[in-house]
Inverse folding.
C-alpha cells in the first residue's frame, strides 16, 4: 500500500505530503452490567473473541499491517480491554493515550471532542487510532467522511469491534476531509455472550 502520491511536474518529480490514516474502532461486546457501573463494564466472552480477532488484523498481510501510530482510548473498562486485546503491543501501535473525555457514559461525546483528543495525542506523524463508543464512532465517521459513502456503510449501524479506516492528507483529520477506505468488523466463531 503506497503511503505517498507521486505526480509529474516540470522539471522532475514532486511528492505530496504523506497520506495518513485514522482507524476508528468501536469497543467489542461488553457484559450487560457491572458492580462498578457502566464505566466498569468489561468485555463478555464474545467481546474478548472479537478483540482477539481484531488483533489478527494487525499481522503482516492483513488489513492494518503497515500502519503504525498513536491510539487515543476511552478510559472505560470495555474500551481499554478492546485496545489491550486488539491493538496494544502490536506492530501498529507505537503509543497510546487514555483519555477520559472519550467516555460517553455521562455526556454526549461529539466529533469535536474526539478531534480534540486526537490533536492532544498526535505526535504529528504516523497514523492515528481511536477506540471509543457508539454513537460517537458513527457520528465521527459520518462527519469526517461527509455523508455519502459513510451513510451507506453505516446504514446497518457500527458493529461491535467494528473498524472504519479513513485516509486524510492534512495535518489532522477534518470534517468532510477524509476518505473512507474500509468499514467492517473482524469475524469470530464465538457465539456466546
Amino acid at each position: 500500500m503506497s503511503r505517498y502520491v507521486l505526480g509529474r511536474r516540470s522539471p522532475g518529480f514532486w511528492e505530496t505530503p504523506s497520506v495518513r490514516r485514522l482507524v476508528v474502532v468501536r469497543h467489542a461486546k461488553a457484559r450487560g452490567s457491572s458492580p462498578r457501573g457502566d464505566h466498569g463494564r468489561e468485555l463478555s466472552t464474545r467481546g474478548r473473541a472479537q478483540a482477539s480477532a481484531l488483533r489478527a488484523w494487525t499481522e503482516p498481510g492483513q488489513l492494518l499491517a503497515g500502519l503504525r501510530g498513536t491510539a487515543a482510548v476511552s478510559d472505560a473498562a470495555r474500551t481499554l480491554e478492546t485496545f489491550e486485546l486488539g491493538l496494544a503491543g502490536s506492530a501498529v501501535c507505537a503509543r497510546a493515550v487514555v483519555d477520559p473525555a472519550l467516555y460517553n457514559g455521562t455526556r454526549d461525546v461529539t466529533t469535536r471532542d474526539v478531534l480534540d483528543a486526537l490533536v492532544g495525542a498526535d505526535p504529528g506523524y504516523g497514523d492515528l487510532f481511536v477506540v471509543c463508543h457508539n454513537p460517537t464512532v458513527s457520528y465521527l465517521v459520518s462527519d469526517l467522511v461527509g455523508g455519502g459513502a459513510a451513510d451507506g456503510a453505516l446504514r446497518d449501524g457500527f458493529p461491535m469491534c467494528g473498524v472504519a479506516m479513513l485516509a486524510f492528507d492534512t495535518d489532522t483529520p477534518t470534517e468532510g476531509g477524509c476518505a473512507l477506505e474500509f468499514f467492517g468488523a473482524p469475524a469470530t466463531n464465538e457465539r456466546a455472550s
Summary: The chain is about 25% helix and 25% strand. The longest strand covers residues 20-26. The radius of gyration is 17 Å. The chain has one domain: 18-184.
